[in-house]
Amino acid sequence: MEVLTLLEVIAVLWVTYLVVTWWLERGRLSQLTDKTVLITGCDTGFGNLLARRLDQLGLRVFAGCLTEAGVAELRQSCSERLQPIQMDVTSSDSVEAAVRVVKEAVGSKGLWGLVNNAGILGVAGTMEWATKGDYQAVLNVNLLGMIDVTNKFLPLLKKSRGRVVNVASLAGRFSTATAVPYSVSKYGVEAFSDSLRRSMTFFGVKVHIIEPGYFRTEISNLEVVLRRLDHAWQRQSSETKAEKGEEFLQAAKDAMVARERLKQDPAAVVDAMEHALCATHPRSRYVVGWDARFMLIPISWLPTDLGDLAGKLTAPPKMRPTPVCYKDGQ
């Protein structure tokens, strides 16, 4: 009876927490037109969609684009409030130039929001297929670039007691056997964001993590991913190819094609980003997508051995190494 009573108390407290949180999260900031936000990675995908959304809401937006084409496209299709700027997060000179532009525009008001969205997938394939250069290329954009941008814009964010929104991934909570450099970078994003959030509480700057599942964006473009997979395979040694086998490569391609039907509408991620910037009581962490919320993130909570078993059981049967070392009874 005492155990039942305790469970009832826990259930009531949990439901109360959910109701209060739901109510608080409904609140929206007033005077959004006074807010200025910088977003990186606005050529396509989440960043592009968020820039348009915030522009429609009346915020002043600086949209960082890697390419001139991205700058031109946003300048043509958005209002004068949105200012696209060419910005390479891997170049400190480029980031510093962006800081000067934004600082001149916001003056003493400071910067309300920084959205670190720029990211690349990098090489596709198993861990052995990726070189040190592959890891470095992904880390330069997804992690080191994010850190550099954040550090350089922090003085402007402190002035307004603003918000930092960092785009991580479910791959930063559950690392799979493919796209390993990407997952390594996103684990780093999680660690950096947690440290930043705890440090910035003393300055009134809030830090929010977005953890999307599998969404329909340019980073997951099937044609590009398959091309990178072929490129990674072709540069492997004959021993590696024999170990994996052509069946492995084809199974990997088939799995990527099959995942196409699982891609979700990126608007859900943009909704989370908007809430992090515009809500009176935003969340510290947003898990977005049914695959992240109900599958992979829960698997990450399991004991390590059980999580590994779940990952193994869900992998396509043909995506397993050919045991060449045990052939012919050896």
Automatic annotation (TrEMBL):
Biological process according to GO: steroid metabolic process
Bilayer-spanning residue ranges: 6-24
Keyword Cell cycle appears in the UniProt entry: no
Any coiled-coil regions, as ranges: none
InterPro entries linked to this entry: NAD(P)-bd_dom_sf, Sc_DH/Rdtase_CS, SDR_fam
GO molecular function: oxidoreductase activity
Keyword list, A-Z: Membrane, Oxidoreductase, Transmembrane, Transmembrane helix
Pfam family, one: adh_short
Family designation: Belongs to the short-chain dehydrogenases/reductases (SDR) family.
Protein name: HSD17B6 protein
Organism the protein comes from: Branchiostoma lanceolatum
